[in-house]
Amino acid sequence: MTGPALAVLGVVLLLAAWQAVAALRWFGTTVCAPTVVVRVFADASSRRVLLDGAGATMLEAVEGFGWALLAAVVVGVLATLLPFLRSGLDQLGTIESAIPFVAIAPILLALFSRDTVPTAMAATTAFFPLYLALVSGLAAVSPAVADLCAALGAARRDTLLRARIPAALPVLTTGMKTAIPLAVLGGVIGEWLGSSNGIGPIMLVAMRNYRMPMMWAAVVVTVVIALLLYGGCAALEWVTARRFG
Amino acid sequence: MSQVAQVAAVAASRGAPISLAGVGKVYPMRRGRSVEAVRDVGLDIAPGEFLALLGPSGCGKSTLLRMMASLEEPTSGTVTVDGAPPRELAARHRLGVAFQDNALLPWSSVYHNLALPFRVAHRPVDRARIAELIELVGLKGFEDARPRQLSGGMRQRVSIARSIMLEPDLLLLDEPFGALDAVTRRRLNAELQRIWMADPVTTVLVTHDVEEALLLADRVVVLSPRPGRISKIVTVPFDRPRALDVTRSARFHAMVDELTAELDALTGGVDSDE
């Protein structure tokens, strides 16, 4: 069987298992069957609420991701141009990534307005994988090309521009693929901290009012957002791998 | 300037002289151990001379070349190019190099790979010069091809063309045809000879191929295995161009035999490690 056929089979099996778990009531009424969730999307007003929330969350995730990418590029290029900064910056990045969400949340709440926290949280979670991908990408240039640049008398910034950055792009886009679902995750968690927009608050309200079909619909929407953005990054990765690989 | 007079005196040949004095290279290894790659090498290379460094694998010949290219520093002794540390020649963009790994930028076309020396030297890209060298190495029509679309031999032609793009004062070639099949290699050797004769600049070629060394070089320096030391220097007597009549002559064969015997004696008949 081909790859796509197997993928479809996997999704069908997953949906069937989900339907079975819901029908057998293994978890009482907390697990709603896919057929019930579909009915939520069929309802115009619920659909409107979910789509608005999805739009807001997607925007936060992408915006946060953009800031994280910008920060990773600035810090990564700095670490490459000034090698003595490299190990220190790596340590700092590792520490940043090791801080749990719960610990970083109060800091972000103190720094930003409640509606900006999701974007900040998305940026915080996406930063480290992007930084790692960028610095390892910038170091990925072949030793022979690095030697060539040195022998041609290329200045450090010329080597960066002509050899290191093009060589880094495929590695960076692979890192983007890893980082974008984290940005969605960070965004949703950021929304739980009191934001008024996005899919996060919808989830919380549905949970508190025990509107399980709505909650499950919100979960599905979150997954779809993550998959859409992931697909975008995967496409970008494919293009850069062909152009710069 | 006296250099100008000198260049005029020896007709077309030009380039930077190289001087190696007591050059040694020791690589530190783990647990305080070290490997001595090169020991006490002294050698003077004249402007416009084509010198081959011949030796078995792991004899430090590439290390010597890398020191001339400013890619490595000697641990003892001095290397000077044009009377100064090699770094200065590289910084002035007067050095041309080609390695066994063609070091082409995989994302750039042949044209843009050949434009690289101009770009890193911050000089306007000379389209006519690029076209001339593409023609010289027989790659007309492949200007827009990416390296992966080319054969191994074609990639090395690009690499050679790039190395002489800025008419360097010193050309350093580290087994540029080492990974090619015998037929392609012989053809490219003949082409390299032709290219070099058009502008005979100081050239150092690292090779483990005796015939290649004798075909191309004015002098062949034979190095012993680790630590690399000069074991023999042979002056090649043949006039250029060295075509089939030379390579099939008894004298050429005698020299091939002599150098091959020297290499065999140096490795003690044991396969040298790669």
TrEMBL record, chain A:
- What stretches pass through the bilayer? 65-85, 92-112, 132-155, 167-194, 214-239
The record's section on PROSITE patterns has: ABC_TM1
Protein name according to UniProt: Putative ABC transporter permease protein HI_0355
Is Cell cycle among this UniProt entry's keywords?
A: no
What subcellular compartments does it reside in? Cell membrane
Q: How does this protein sit in the membrane?
A: Multi-pass membrane protein
Q: What is the lineage of its organism?
A: Bacteria, Bacillati, Actinomycetota, Actinomycetes, Frankiales
ABC transmembrane type-1 domain mapped to chain residues: 58-233
Keywords, ordered alphabetically: Cell membrane, Membrane, Transmembrane, Transmembrane helix, Transport
**The UniProt record lists the keyword Transmembrane helix:** yes
Top-rank lineage group of the source organism:
Bacteria
Q: What is its main location?
A: membrane
Give the record's GO biological process terms: transmembrane transport
Q: Which family does the UniProt entry place this protein in?
A: Belongs to the binding-protein-dependent transport system permease family.
GO terms under cellular component: plasma membrane
From TrEMBL, chain B:
List the SUPFAM superfamilies: P-loop containing nucleoside triphosphate hydrolases
- Per the UniProt record, one Pfam family is ABC_tran
The record, for InterPro entries, names:
AAA+_ATPase (IPR003593), ABC_transporter-like_ATP-bd (IPR003439), ABC_transporter-like_CS (IPR017871), ABC_transporter_ATP-bind (IPR050166), P-loop_NTPase (IPR027417)
Which keywords annotate this record? ATP-binding, Hydrolase, Nucleotide-binding, Transport
Superkingdom per UniProt: Bacteria
Q: Which residues form the ABC transporter domain?
A: 18-250
Keyword ATP-binding annotated: yes
Q: Which GO terms describe its molecular function?
A: ATP binding; ATP hydrolysis activity
Enzyme Commission identifier(s)? 3.6.3.36
State the top-level EC class. hydrolase
Keyword check for Lipoprotein:
no
Output the PANTHER family linked to this UniProt entry: ALIPHATIC SULFONATES IMPORT ATP-BINDING PROTEIN SSUB (PTHR42788:SF13), TAURINE IMPORT ATP-BINDING PROTEIN-RELATED (PTHR42788)
Instruction: Name it.
Output: Taurine-transporting ATPase
